[in-house]
Amino acid sequence: MNTSKVGLKIAVLIFSMVLLFTIGCAKKKSVTEGISEDEMSAKGRGLSTEAISEEELSAKRKAEQEAMMRKTAMQKFVNEDVYFDFDDASIRPDAHKILNDKIEWLKANPSVSVTIEGHCDERGTEAYNIALGERRAQNIKTFLITNGIDNSRLDTISYGKEKPLDQSHNETAWAKNRRGHFRID
What we know:
The chain is α+β, with helices and mostly antiparallel strands. It has helices spanning 3-24, 37-44, 54-79, 95-108, 126-146, 171-177; strands at 82-83, 114-119, 154-160, 179-184.
């Protein structure tokens, strides 16, 4: 046999062994890769993944979605203010939808109590703005009570011009500051 052929056969043999060794020692996947959190939780409790039914997983996901929706609705409730015209405590027509949404949320959450804050812009005396803020908060409270919310769940407070939402000194800022704000107690 020719030496070059033997060398070639040895090289091919070595290459094949290296290739087999490389393939055989490929990185193994983590045991947890591709397993959902629910399945990991079940494994942590000593249950097999078969022990968690699709119905249980579906129910858990649904409960998580509902909790997220409740949180979002609560944030909307707190973050959506009712605005007032200059030197006026009357509830504007555009506030009715906001207040009706708040009424629905309060009815769906009967254990929640709320403080209604009355705010004013910076114009006017401190005493005048405290009184105007109180009238605004009281008018909102009356609207809620008239539409089925129990009086005992509602408190009011006036901040007058003490807590402006916008610190600027122009009509745009003043319009933002003339508001009724809701705080969950």
